[in-house]
Amino acid sequence: MQLQDNVAIVTGASSGIGKAIALRFVKEGGKVAIADINMEGAKAAVAEIEAMGGEAMAVEMDVTDEDAVMSGTDAVAERFGRIDTMVSNAGIQIVHPVEDFPYGEFRKMVDIHLGGAFLLTKACVKHMYPAKSGSLIYMGSVHSHRASALKSAYVAAKHGILGLSRVMAKEGAKHGVRSNVICPGFVKTPLVEKQIPEQAKDLGISEDEVVSRIMLGETVDTEFTTIEDVADVAVFLAGFKTNALTGQSVTVSHGWHMA
Ligand SMILES: NC(=O)c1ccc[n+]([C@@H]2O[C@H](COP(=O)([O-])OP(=O)(O)OC[C@H]3O[C@@H](n4cnc5c(N)ncnc54)[C@H](O)[C@@H]3O)[C@@H](O)[C@H]2O)c1
Questions:
Q1: Which ligand 1 atom lies nearest to the CA of residue 13?
Q2: Which residue among 11, 17, 192 has the greatest number of ligand 1 atoms within 8 angstroms of its CB, and so is best to mutate?
Q3: Ligand 1 centre distance from Cα of residue 174 (Å)
Q4: pLDDT at 202
Q5: The CATH number of domain 7-185+226-251, selected from 3.20.20.70, 3.40.50.12780, 3.30.470.20, 3.40.50.720
Q6: CA of 113 to the centre of ligand 1 (A)
Q7: Burial class (CB in 10 A: 0-12, 13-18, 19+), 198
Q8: Residue closest by Cα to atom 23 of ligand 1
Q9: Cα(123) to centroid of ligand 1, in Å?
Q10: In this structure, are residues 234 and 87 in contact, taking their beta carbons and an 8 Å threshold?
Q11: Could you confirm whether 103 is annotated as catalytic?
């Protein structure tokens, strides 16, 4: 039990990586808030956690809505007494070549990934600073370090998250708050499943080639990273005992990006 009584808020936890992190935190003794726009999925995740004997709450939250992020985060602190860990994870993917990228879709991507991370940070530090402790965890990507064609909005937003996290390492230090980024390679979740046919169409190649060349071509073993791999890193970052580990990004990508 590495996270006994640790209270975490995880955005985008109705599905994929966020849900795996939430379930894993509970297995490690934590209590979690499942914050998502998809309330059906959030309630299902809470039911799954309660069936395991764990404690969780569903919070309806669009991470781009400041009022919803502030009030949702306050509700978590009220229910569980504090917030120890933030996992800013909610995200979507939209891919186009720049010349065809509608500006509204570009802004939506940046608003969700980067704006959402900023708002959740603002909401969480309000509770962490007075407690003089906390762990901010951001879901970056290999695309926080590397670029891929068609992903201008995603790559720009994920690079921005690194910057935000590093600022928070500096601002949070005197309040006992650490800040780090997890950078996964490709993980087979609904977000990635959707991209395979889209990229095949945009790049004029087969779906198998998208997987073997575009997604896994630079890994050391052509393996997908799994939701469990990412959850392991999140547990490590949430449970780290001192402020020595801050301002870092941890890449979990089968060697696609080595840093
Ligand atoms: N899957 C991958 O290969 C991969 C790789 C690197 C990074 N990531 C990042 O991991 C995170 C989770 O992705 P996933 O693959 O688990 O995707 P997913 O589609 O399985 O889950 C994303 C979740 O975010 C929620 N969400 C979307 N917009 C939201 C909003 N405005 N407010 C609140 N919730 C919202 C969705 O409802 C969903 O539950 C994303 O930030 C993504 O960029 C994913």
A1: 39
A2: 17
A3: 31
A4: 83
A5: 3.40.50.720
A6: 9
A7: middle
A8: 12
A9: 20
A10: yes
A11: no
pTM: 0.98
Cα angle for residues 148, 152, 154 (degrees, 5° grid): 85
Percent of residues, the chain, with pLDDT higher than 70 = 100
Q: Which of 34, 62, 92 to mutate to test the pocket of ligand 1 (most atoms within 8 A of CB)?
A: 92
**Structure-block tokens of residue 28:** 């490690």
Instruction: Output the six-digit token pair for 220.
Output: 């050391």
Domain parsing of the chain, residue ranges: 7-185+226-251, 187-224
Tokens of residue 18, six digits: 């966020």
> pLDDT by residue (tens digit) across 107-144?
999 999 999 999 999 999 999 999 999 999 999 999 99
